[in-house]
Design a protein that fits this description.
Elements lengths: L8 H22 L4 H23 L1
Helix pairs in contact: 1-2
Length: 58
């Protein structure tokens, strides 16, 4: 995912919820070990890390 600007904390939180919902759906349909589910899980981890960094900057 290429980002053009620094995301606000709220934008990160919204993306986390969106990715989490997609990941859960994908895991339900395709299984937890499916490559697409794993991709969303990794993307979710990335966004959670961004959220933690944004909290430590304040």
């Amino acid at each position: 995912m290429v980002e053009q600007h620094q995301l606000s904390r709220k934008e990160i939180e919204v993306r986390i919820e969106m990715i989490r919902d997609i990941m859960v759906y994908c895991g339900t349909v395709n299984g937890l070990a499916h490559p697409e589910t794993i991709k969303y899980s990794q993307e979710l981890d990335h966004m959670l890390n961004k959220l933690e960094v944004s909290k430590s900057i304040v």
